[in-house]
Amino acid sequence: MSNEPTADLLNRRRFLSVAGLAGAGAVLPTIAQAGEAPKPDPLITEVQDWNRYLGDGVDKRPYGVPSKYEKHVVRRDVSWLTASPESSVNFTPLHELDGIITPSGVCFERHHGGIAEINPADHRLMIHGLVEKPLVFTMDDIKRMPRVNKVYFLECAANSGMEWRGAQLNGCQFTHGMIHNVMYTGVPLKLLLDEAGLKPNVKWLMLEGADSAGMNRSLPIAKALDDVLIAFAMNGEALRPENGYPLRAVIPGWQGNLWVKWLRRIEAGDQPWQTREETSKYTDLMPDGRARKHTFVMDAKSVITNPSPQAPLKFKGRNVLTGVAWSGRGTVKRVDVTLDGGRNWQAARIDGPVLDKSLVRFYVDFDWNGEELMIQSRAIDETGYVQPSKDELRKVRGVNSVYHNNGIQTWLVRGNGETENVEIG
Ligand SMILES: Nc1nc2c(c(=O)[nH]1)N[C@H]1C(S)=C(S)[C@@H](COP(=O)(O)O)O[C@H]1N2
Ligand SMILES: [Mo]
Questions:
Q1: FRET partner for 211 with CA separation of 20 to 30 A, picked from 50, 133, 260, 315?
Q2: Could you tell me the fold of the domain covering 301-422?
């Protein structure tokens, strides 16, 4: 770094404490101007509007929303992607977020028949099929069962699906935004199944939603008894209607389409249900025309969220590169980052909780002199699995798939800081 701002910072702090606001502002540069001739900064020397008026009282914002200066932090959709907004998807603004928790209001939404608006008093969950005692639970019944809190990512199997044939969408929101990571509160499905008493020949469950799509999904019984939750809360409050209020299935580490929202029925059986969705979609078409089916687990993956096409580099010198990584097979052990298209890799700094089947946040604090960068991140999970390059993935899977693209993402940072979605080689 050419200009070391630390000394200026220290001086400035000392000066502020002795000389007060006006005097300090007249002579001290901001951090971005460090080293330039000091200019008076009216934002320090002048009294600002917000110093003059009496602000909103505590009765004005009973349910808080973000500052009006954060209006750009929103879910976005791609209108040409699907025929109608009711059977569609929008994307989490990953480049605007930090830490590991996705704020509820910007969790991407995927629904096949629009949002069901259900009064929790009218909601029922039925468990039947190959069980000793068919049961119907009200929301009150479910909230009287022992509950747990868990942070998990939900990734749609189609996340990055537009990128199979080549770089396509300009922004990590669109290439990787079909993911969210929240804390769920819910009851282990095993407890509900134990009450109903599974017959010994049960191999699969069918989970059905109460939305107009009446979406149903088949779930192997081993997973159901392992870590599946029936959740009623996310991030400490009731689920949002978009995400399945009042009740949804949480299937940790497995593809999003199994996480049935507005969950109303679980039927125990001895074979998978052949739903239209499962036979025509959610299979991975291979180069030889065969299809991979029941590829439920989401393999390790990562993406650099800043810089990225929607978040270009603005300053030379001190910069923070950041992103998220995840694995459906457990915890993320390491994230490697390259700034030069894969010639040199360094282990990124992971900060914040490292949890099972949850996003982790990584950082590389670096200096930028305005040279072109080819930046990539590569996740390694606790099983030792290494996130593959897109070409490695294509060698095995071809380019006919839509689902399960966990290849390494490349961003090209130009000399002016603008950043593009590209592929190397
Ligand atoms: N009832 C119902 N559940 C559903 C869906 C749906 O359309 N209806 N979409 C599924 C798909 S494909 C995904 S990726 C996730 C998306 O969850 P989210 O909307 O909370 O992001 O919900 C799943 N559960
Ligand atoms: Mo999905």
A1: 133
A2: Immunoglobulin-like (2.60.40)
